C-alpha cells in the first residue's frame, strides 16, 4: 500500500515538471551595462541564459524562453510572455555607479572598470503576487550557489533592504519584471562585468555550467517543496 502510494506520488510529480520562464535582460537598443572590456551586458545575459535553459531541459524541466533574441523592448511585456509558467527568472549581469569607475585601455579603446564590487545578487519584490515563493526560491538558489563556491556581493546593502543577505538575496520592490507578473519571480545578477577579473570568470563556460547547475538545483528543490505544500 505504501509502495503503491509512493509510486503514484512520484508518477504524479513526474507528469508535471515545473515550467520555468527564463528572461534575458535588456536587448535591442538597450544593451544594458557595458563590461570592463566593452562587451554589452545583453551578450553575457544571453550566453548564460542559453546554458541555464539547456541544463534545465536536460533535467526534464520545462523552459519558456523570453527575449532570447533580444526583441522584446518593453519590460512590462516580458512577464506576459511568461504567462502559464510556474516561475520567472530574469538573467542580468551587474555594474556599478560612475563614481566607482576607473579608466583603462583594452585593445586600444578607452574603457572603465571597478575593483570594489564583485559577486552575485538575487532580487525579489515584496510587491510580487507570490512574495513567499519568490523569496523561498531565491534563498534556495542563493544557498546552492554558496555551496558551489560562489560569493554573494555585499555591495547591495548600500541601496537595498536585505531579504536573506547571507545567501545574497535583496529586496528591489519597484522592478517592473518582478511585480508586473502573476508568477513568483526573481532577478538574478550573475556577477559584476565591470570587475576585470570577474568578467573573465563570468565568460568561462565551465564556471557558467557550475553556476547554472547551482541555480537549477536550488530552484527545482524549492519548487518541489512548494508543490508538496500546495497539494496538502
Ligand atoms: Zn541588467
Summarize the entry for a quick read.
This protein has 232 residues and is an alpha/beta fold. The chain has helices at 2-15, 41-58, 77-81, 131-147, 176-179, 196-202, 205-231, and strands spanning 19-24, 62-66, 87-94, 102-106, 109-113, 121-124, 162-164, 169-171, 185-192.
Features:
232 residues, alpha/beta, Aminopeptidase, two-stranded antiparallel sheet, 7 helices, 9 strands, globular, disordered N terminus, binds zinc ion
Largest sheet: 7 strands, mixed
* CATH homology-level superfamily: Zn-dependent exopeptidases
| Estimated structural class | alpha/beta
Bound molecules: zinc ion
What is the CATH topology classification name? Aminopeptidase
Helix content: 25-40%
Span of the ends, CA to CA: 19 Å
Number of strands: 9
What is the CA-based Rg, rounded? 18 Å
Unreliable stretches: 1-9, 228-232
Strand content: 15-25%
